[in-house]
Q: What sequence folds into this?
């Protein structure tokens, strides 16, 4: 039977056709008025999409590049930083901070868990210069409470900058960086904005820009001050990924258009982002109810809407499920990473997914379970009906 | 919520990405060696796809153009022809034959029915010059028995040419034109070959080529002998739809690749076509079982695999279902045509559809019924489980 390849992965995510067309048509030079007009427009759109008054910087790199920039630009060797880690991407903050010579304190929790403010408060020192955390820990499908962390830092009068990797958080959870006191918020292109990998972006507070005046870590390609200066003229310091920037503009236009009204036919980007978050939330809830109705348990103690991590039952290798979905249906989900491999499987919801995608994946999962794991006793319809009911309730 | 637009229509059908890319890249002139090589290759592929030793002609027109060519090239004014009609496309044969001055006999059955050989035999006259029929009547979702009609004409020693509109039949039902004595078999681009509208093609028997030497109806753009002569050099008489021809080549490559084996990594087009038919058959059976489990009845007495026509229940306008699927889920199915409007709805299976598409449509249909037609008492899962069971049985 025909098997279409379909990504249900937390990045890359399914591409938006309008962005693909813009990318294919992006035959422009980057030192021209045409590019400058495009880039200025995209930078303004990103401010609205992020929901901030702060300047946004775009880097031609993966999200890890923006994470590195948030360390190399904001710290000096020997600086004390605090990393909140409960998964693979938390650990990446530790590695990055160590690579740049920081003294790294951590609040380290088991995979799938999140942090209490008391745990963070206990590790926050008077000389902590920055706190690094994920809005959503992609490896475990867990949402961390950024608002609570921001409030804690304020109430402690901490000078620590709050740096949030929101690479899978943007577009899947409500974030208000300006009100919550977030100093750096990081996004990536191959996530909820529905374009291929290759771009990252950072919104940077004035407090963080000031910090950069005095920090001593080396940086060149990821020198944010240089990028900020160039961005004012609609340029980037080095050759930018032009086609991806064109795609990003088209994707942000599309997100805005999702909130079009007869009075505002061009749409509204802030409202479009809220709808994108609502979409991910609803799909995540459909998925959570479906897998639980099929007898699975959720891995995360605080599940986010970017992806749902599901425990494989005792004695079952989650790879069997991933492999069955791919080989029989062309549907790509992800196994656990690192020590979680074989123990969980993860289904993504961020970006360009709809009701029909979600139902189809549940129906494929049921086929794989019935055929490959008959010992689980899965019955057709068990997950599907649960997902349908969630949708029906939400669309009353 | 996000709603992706998805076609479940019996033409145009969902586009094959590989064909879209070939179409976008088709920046070549049609009087060059590059085009001649492409066109010769596509014509050879089409012979294999149709499954014939006869020459195949490609026209830059919709399928109706090839239907007209099958009348204007094969008849003279006053010729007696027999049209087998049980739907909108059967009626089109009548209109075409009348437009070219033929004396038209018909076997006319109610929409949704098919013909017995006795009924055809009763209308077949010694001077019947051609018999026109559909392999699949798209307007009613009905398969006609072309093999039986071919055998009847042989057993009657009829001189009538057998002309078969297989526009939605090719790639959805087994056809063997050479063995069955079919003289003209017509296909279209926006059907099982998964590319946009704009091309039609005809396989033409030697008997039909001979007939053209003596027929007197006017034809110019659709002069098949002129096209045959040009095709030998890899050209078409008039400017061809180059991008669509490139897309068709890519689509036929893809169909062949569906039958790739380690020994034959490039695949096999004849076997690929069989798999395409099997795919449509399985999806049609999933759909038929799903809608019947939901309490609907089938409109056709002899349902084909190109599309399933479903009766709207007493007192229900089928337009409500079509409209609900489109407005709530972006899923486009078709209403009945002509007098069937409001009475049936049609779900297509021809071309680029898979298990996940099929399940997703059934799940969307269940949502529409539960919300918009609560009097039907549809329960979630009723159609889905039936469709899942058909698939599970087939993939044992």
A:
């Amino acid at each position: 039977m025909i098997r279409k390849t379909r990504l249900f992965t937390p990045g890359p995510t399914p591409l938006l056709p309008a962005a693909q067309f813009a990318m294919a048509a992006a035959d422009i030079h980057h030192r021209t008025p045409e590019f400058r007009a495009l880039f200025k427009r995209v930078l303004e759109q990103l401010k609205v999409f992020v929901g901030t008054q702060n300047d946004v910087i775009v880097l031609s790199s993966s999200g890890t590049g923006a994470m590195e920039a948030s360390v190399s630009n904001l710290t000096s060797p020997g600086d004390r930083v605090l990393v909140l880690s409960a998964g693979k991407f938390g650990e990446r903050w530790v590695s990055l901070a160590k690579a740049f010579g920081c003294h790294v304190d951590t609040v380290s929790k088991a995979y799938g868990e999140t942090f209490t403010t008391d745990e963070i408060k206990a590790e926050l020192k008077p000389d902590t210069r920055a706190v690094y955390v994920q809005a959503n820990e992609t490896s475990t499908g867990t949402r961390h409470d950024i608002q609570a962390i921001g409030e804690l830092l304020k109430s402690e009068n901490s000078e620590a900058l709050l740096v949030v990797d929101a690479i899978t958080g943007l577009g899947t959870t409500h974030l208000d960086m300006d009100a919550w006191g977030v100093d750096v918020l990081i996004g990536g292109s191959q996530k909820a904005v529905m374009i291929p990998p290759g771009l990252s972006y950072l919104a940077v507070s004035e407090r963080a820009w000031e910090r950069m005046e005095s920090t001593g870590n080396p940086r060149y390609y990821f020198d944010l001050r240089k990028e900020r200066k160039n961005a004012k003229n609609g340029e980037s310091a080095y050759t930018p990924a032009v086609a991806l920037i064109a795609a990003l503009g088209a994707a942000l236009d599309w997100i805005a258009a999702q909130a079009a009204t007869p009075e505002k036919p061009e749409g509204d980007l802030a409202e479009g982002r809220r709808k994108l978050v609502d979409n991910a939330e609803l799909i995540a809830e459909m998925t959570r109810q479906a897998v639980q109705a099929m007898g699975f348990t959720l891995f995360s103690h605080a599940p986010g809407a970017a992806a749902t991590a599901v425990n494989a039952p005792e004695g079952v290798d989650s790879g069997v499920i991933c492999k069955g979905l791919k080989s029989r249906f062309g549907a790509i989900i992800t196994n656990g990473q690192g020590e979680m491999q074989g123990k969980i499987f993860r289904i993504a919801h961020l970006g360009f997914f709809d009701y029909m995608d979600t139902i189809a994946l549940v129906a494929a999962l049921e086929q794989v379970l019935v055929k490959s794991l008959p010992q689980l006793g899965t019955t057709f319809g068990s997950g599907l009906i649960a997902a349908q009911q969630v949708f029906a309730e939400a669309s009353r």
In short: Chain B touches chain A through 39 residues (CB under 8 Å). Residues 17-254 of chain B form a domain with the Aspartate Aminotransferase; domain 2 fold (CATH 3.40.640.10). Chain B is about 40% helix and 15% strand. The first strand of chain B starts at residue 6 and ends at 7.
